Amino acid sequence: MNANAKVLDSQQLLIHWQGHRNLTRRVIEAFPEKDLFGFSIGGMRPFSKLVLEMIAIGGPALKSIVEGTINTFDESFNPTTKAELLTKWDEETEIINEYFSQITEERFQETFNLFGQYEFPIYQNILYFVDNEIHHRGQGYVYLRALGIEPPFFWERER
Amino acid sequence: MNANAKVLDSQQLLIHWQGHRNLTRRVIEAFPEKDLFGFSIGGMRPFSKLVLEMIAIGGPALKSIVEGTINTFDESFNPTTKAELLTKWDEETEIINEYFSQITEERFQETFNLFGQYEFPIYQNILYFVDNEIHHRGQGYVYLRALGIEPPFFWERER
């Protein structure tokens, strides 16, 4: 076994995640503004709220991991327009790039108590952020289909 | 930089995927049989068809990667009961364990032409299988909510 063999490196994981974030951004754009904030199925949250959950996780979590501080989970940001939501999304894109790149590969196997509640290895926390985004975005796809709107292709991750 | 540092190793990725597969199995179980095969929203496929796509990918793809053979994508398995679908799901669980463990860590960065169409590094192909499952399972969550059924918790991955 080559000691340098690895499933993927941290830069590849960042590119993977940002590819998903590109797709999520295009799903946000695909919603009519009123449906982004108002449409839902079966008592679920509208897509804007699902996106706000993603925004409350990614950047703040990475900042906390890099700085070693325990921040509480904060979902107080409450935009009322698609433009505001997209502006925040793009700000978080830069924050994620900045902080992700400061996590040395050695740290991914370390345990971190995220938001003072989720004590798992850092690689599991980061996979959770990506998985949670895919999960909720998949729900957004159903909302779009129910609205008669064709969602972006799932496999297209580039801008 | 420690040369042994890694984001995660292949066994951790397998555990991560099988955790997701446990959850997907519980989502299948949560559907009433007739809705599993018949219910959908916005012209989408019923959940059984989404699950059959997952079944057509995971095990066959790993077998192909390990054996170095190019198999065509085959979605011909067509069960009509939940029990048949779950039996096949559990068979694939064993196939995935068997073949995944035969992929040496060196190979994850190699390119493989999956199903003769998807020429990507093996780590990207495998992340795609997991992501595709999360995406479609998230859609299944909306179907369950629309049917008035509480889905399993997203963060519970153990049996």
Automatic annotation (TrEMBL), chains A, B:
<feature type="binding site">
    <location>
        <position position="136"/>
    </location>
    <ligand>
        <name>a divalent metal cation</name>
    </ligand>
</feature>
<keyword id="KW-0479">Metal-binding</keyword>
<dbReference type="GO" id="GO:0046872">
    <property type="term" value="F:metal ion binding"/>
</dbReference>
<dbReference type="InterPro" id="IPR034660">
    <property type="entry name" value="DinB/YfiT-like"/>
</dbReference>
<dbReference type="InterPro" id="IPR007837">
    <property type="entry name" value="DinB"/>
</dbReference>
<comment type="similarity">
    <text>Belongs to the DinB family.</text>
</comment>
<protein>
    <submittedName>
        <fullName>Uncharacterized damage-inducible protein DinB (Forms a four-helix bundle)</fullName>
    </submittedName>
</protein>
<dbReference type="Pfam" id="PF05163">
    <property type="entry name" value="DinB"/>
</dbReference>
